[in-house]
Structures are given as C-alpha cells and as structure tokens.
Design a protein that fits this description.
The protein has 185 residues and is an alpha/beta fold. Helices cover 48% and strands 12% of the residues.
Length: 185
C-alpha cells in the first residue's frame, strides 16, 4: 500500500507541475490516520519512506509538498504545527514544507499568531477558513491577528479559502472572503 501511495503521490507531483502548480497539500485526514497497534515512530518512518520518491520528483519538477496539521477530531497523525515542523526537520528535504489551516489551528492550545510565528521557517501555504468550516469572516475567528502575524513573518505565499459548506454558492463565498480578508492587508 505504501509503494502504491508513493507512486500515486509521484503522479500527483507530475500533475501539479504539468498544470503549473507549485504547492501540493498533504491533508487527507482519514487516509493518514493509523490504527492503535501502530505507534507514531513507526508511522513517521513509513511516511518518510513513502515520501522519498515523490520528494525527489518534486525537487526536479519545482513542487513543494506541504504537510497539513489537522485537528485531533480528524486524524491521529500530525495534529499540531509543532509536530509537523518536527517531522519536516527530521525528513530534512527542501521540498517538504508546511501548510497551516486556520480551522485546524483552532484545535491547538496556543494562539494562532503564536503558531504562525513559531512555524514561519517552514510555512509555504495557508488555508483561511473559520472554525465553523465556512469562509473567513463567517464565524468566531478574528482573522485580523492572523493576517498580521503572516505579515510580521514576511509570508509571501498564497492564502487560499477552503470551505466545507457551499450553500451560499462559490461566487458569494469567494467575494465575501476576499472582501473580509482585504481589510487586514
């Protein structure tokens, strides 16, 4: 299964490069969760092995693979930015980076701006979404300090809007998210 996954990730790296993309997010909460008979060290080793060929290809194709920490409700593997950064450090490949997801960071005990500051060395992408799984500005999360932290650390990448409820329609979601986030830059 890991060999098949590795080949598939390599194909996705090629696809990403072929369409002009530069960032590939490794999210997939349930697919990366591990059963109780496994331990984190074992899973990290398997994860590293499965990423070996895709990372080599990513270096040749100019693609960054970004680990996405997700909430404990979604997965049991890489649930904090600190865990992701530690794994990125251990794997030590220049094409392995970090994506921070606002909804997922709401599950962490530290304030989101602190997470951004601590993770800045590895940060290559940001998902802007509210804890309510909707776009920024639609719930309780105050994006002002988050956007300020991104500016403070000199973040130059994209901030993409990731939502899980589409009842408002994609155009309305995009328009509202852009309008809301632009007030902070």
């Amino acid at each position: 299964m890991r060999e098949k996954t590795s080949r598939y990730l390599s194909a996705l790296v090629d696809f990403t490069a072929d369409i002009g993309g530069a960032v590939m997010v490794l999210g997939s909460p349930k697919q990366r969760s591990f059963p109780p008979e496994c331990n984190v060290a074992m899973v990290e080793r398997w994860f590293s092995e499965a990423l070996s060929e895709p990372l080599s290809l990513a270096a040749r194709r100019g693609v960054m693979l970004c680990i996405e920490p997700l909430s404990k409700a979604e997965t049991n593997f890489i649930t904090t930015a600190e865990e992701a950064c530690a794994l990125i450090t251990r794997i030590a490949h220049p094409n392995l980076r970090l994506i921070l997801d606002v909804k997922a960071m709401c599950d962490e005990p530290r304030p989101i701006p602190d997470i951004i500051h601590a993770s800045r060395r590895y940060l290559s992408h940001v998902h802007a979404n509210d804890e309510n799984r909707r776009g920024p500005g639609s719930g309780r999360v105050d994006f002002g300090p988050i956007m300020q932290a991104l500016l403070d650390v000199g973040y130059q990448g994209y901030v993409s809007v990731e939502v899980f409820a589409f009842d408002e329609g994609p155009e309305t979601i995009a328009r509202n998210a852009i309008r809301y986030l632009q007030q902070f830059v």
